[in-house]
Every structure is written in structure tokens, then in C-alpha cells.
Amino acid sequence: MSRTIKRQRGVSLVELIIFIVVVGVAVVGVVAAMRLGTAASTDPMIQKQALAIAEALLEEVQLQPFTYCDPDDANAASANSTAACAVAANNETLAMGPEGGETRAAAPLFDNVSDYHNVNLAGISGMDGAAIGGLANYTALITITPQGLGVIPADEALLIRVTVTGPPGTNATVVLDGYRTRYAPNALP
Hints:
The chain is an alpha+beta fold. Helices cover 26% and strands 16% of the residues. The mean pLDDT is 84.
């Protein structure tokens, strides 16, 4: 009689071990890629937060008066040159930086655009000086520079640059530029 050899069907132990090794390597690669993606997913949130801070600070500065005289001067709203200021010492012609102890958050408060020149915030706070939760590791720098705009001379327009940097270890830096021009008379916003 002839014998028919039946082949067994299935997976040998060697094939099973090779399969487990290959799948294990693939799973490790997928998990590593997911971990990297998850770790980087906080960067967009930090970038958006830095952008929101920069926009808020830029708006805060742009809303300040830019007059020929100190805004406290009686002629601030009507002066069309520095000579028209009621008090000569109130002349604000591009005097960069705060005067008379003014600050952003405590009396006497900043009262014009140029007061914000070189304001450096380590930790973001509101205009009342109160720290805003979750923003302690952000920093901001505001610079004000005279900048001509076509037919508008440099002493009539200011470039406002706000640079916000995210927490250490992140690459989140946002730089926003804005302009404030002098409107006189009635230069108050």
C-alpha cells in the first residue's frame, strides 16, 4: 500500500518567535512616535498663549495717548506742537520711558505710549499688577521706536514691538509689531 504523508498545518515555534520579535519592534516604533507627538502637542498651546499675551500687550500700548504734551497737561487735547503745551516740562516729544515714577500697575500709572519703552515683564500680570495664573514662566519685552511711515515723519509715528517668550525649554517666541501715530489736535484715543 502506498502511504500518503500528511503534512501538518500550523506555525512552528521558530516562526512564532520571529513573528513576536517583528511585532514587538513595530510596536516600540509606534509607541516612540506617539510619545514624540504627545510631547510636542503642548508647543501649539504655548505658542497660542504667547500670541494672546503679545496681542493683549500690543493693544494695551496702542490704546494709550500719543500727544505733544503729557496727557495730564491742560492743552494735551488741543496742542498741535510741543510749544503749545501749558507746562514746558510736560513736553512729551518722543521722551522714551516713564517719567515721574510712573509704572504699568501702580499709581502713578503709565499715561502715554512712550512710557512703555523697554518695559520688561518677567511673569505676566494684569494692569492692576496681579499675576495671571499659569503665566509666571512667560516673559515680555516692549520697545517703542520712532518710525517714519511714508509721508508721516518719524516724530509723528511710533513702532511698538512686543516680544513674548514662552517658558524655558520651549521654542515659543512671538514678536508683534504695531504702530501708533500722533493725531493733533485731539490726539487722545
